[in-house]
DNA sequence: GTTTTAACATACCGATCGGTACACAAAAAA
DNA sequence: TTTTTTGTGTACCGATCGGTATGTTAAAAC
């Protein structure tokens, strides 16, 4: 053993995640990273590899925490309809209070990197698929409880809701009127019958 | 008057549009632009200003042609339901045949630039609002003809469809199964009742 | 034909990019 | 205490970035 690390690997990774989330891959420079992470370049490279590897590690950290947060949020409501309403409205509130609006790190990456890098095409697709499964389980719970019609196609419905969630998240980046956003959520939630 | 331009301004602007559409703002370099547009740097600067101005001009060209194309597509079907189905399915087909999938230039810009540049926040928002109006007019046509229920909230519904369209376009960048995409479209179109 | 005007191509600018060589500092191993 | 190992900070690498100065060429104006 030699000298011990002076920085907390989780903390500096989190700082990198915040930065990539906010600015994307290309627009984030190594200088941005060193100042935000509070460590020097060689420390980044020895701990996380090059810029792309660091980005991937940060994104994986994001998706895994985002997935478990999503599961938790949807479980904290008895009513499935209320659960989805609260979930969507929370997305809106966060986006309006964030300035600049960061949106979803995974969605940002789908747009910026997925079309040109198969690794991120797969990573982002699998995250969305995973979220769809969480949605589906929630819908199935609603069917079980009798809140939703028994002939509901849980899988197809969950996929449509994921698509709407993505669209909502992206749309919010242009800061549309609240009424636009509220209308779309209201209409979309009528799918839960 | 001095020497006349040797290049077609519309053609080279179109080339720039294709490139920005495919790679985004940051990832497109001036060298990429000169080689794709077939003209030298000073010609770009004299004809279109700096990189950001050229990008904005290219995006405006895109949104205006995209809007009129959308209106045309929705008008070519008697049935409003069929019009929207064909419209959504066309988006899917184009995305799957494009490699890499370019998605929508305006949506790409919403994600990359809108959060950090008010000019593009406004420009992209207004394009989406304009598309929403086109959707709304189409829905109102369906109400008039009796195809859609008379108590349909055309505005709210059009906004929800825009959100789904954005979500679909973004989701396609991760190349999900056709079944995922078909399911979401099928469910979303049940909103047209 | 001469002058004037503007587009052309080349070659270059300083700044910044991602990435690393190297010397020094610190802590474990001997 | 000495040796070995590994992290840290500095200073630098070549490449590329967006943008421009400059000299040349071509066409309109006279």
Automatic annotation (TrEMBL), chains A, B:
InterPro entries: DNA-bd_HTH_TetR-type_CS, Homeodomain-like_sf, HTH_TetR, Tet_transcr_reg_TetR-rel_C_sf, TetR_C. Residues 29-48 bind DNA. Gene3D superfamilies: Homeodomain-like, Tetracycline Repressor, domain 2. Residues 6-66 form the HTH tetR-type domain. The keyword Transcription applies. GO terms for molecular function: DNA binding. It holds the Pfam family TetR_N. The keyword Transcription regulation applies. This is Transcriptional regulator. It comes from Paenibacillus solani.
């Amino acid at each position: 053993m030699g000298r011990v690390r002076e920085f907390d690997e989780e903390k500096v990774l989190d700082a990198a995640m915040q930065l990539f989330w906010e600015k994307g891959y290309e627009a984030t420079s190594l200088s941005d990273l060193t100042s935000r992470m509070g460590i020097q370049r060689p420390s980044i490279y020895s701990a996380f590899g090059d810029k792309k590897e660091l980005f991937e590690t940060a994104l994986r950290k994001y998706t895994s925490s985002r997935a478990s947060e999503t599961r938790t949020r949807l479980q904290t409501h008895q009513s499935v309809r209320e659960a989805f309403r609260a979930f969507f409205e929370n997305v809106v509130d966060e986006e309006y209070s964030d300035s600049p609006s960061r949106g979803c790190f995974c969605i940002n990456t789908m747009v910026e990197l997925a079309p040109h890098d198969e690794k991120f095409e797969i990573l982002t697709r699998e995250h969305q698929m995973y979220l769809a499964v969480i949605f589906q389980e929630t819908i199935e719970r609603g069917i079980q409880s009798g809140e939703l019609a028994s002939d509901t196609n849980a899988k197809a419905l969950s996929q449509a809701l994921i698509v709407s969630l993505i669209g909502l998240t992206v749309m919010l980046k242009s800061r549309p009127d609240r009424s636009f956003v509220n209308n779309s959520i209201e209409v979309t939630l009528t799918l839960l019958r």
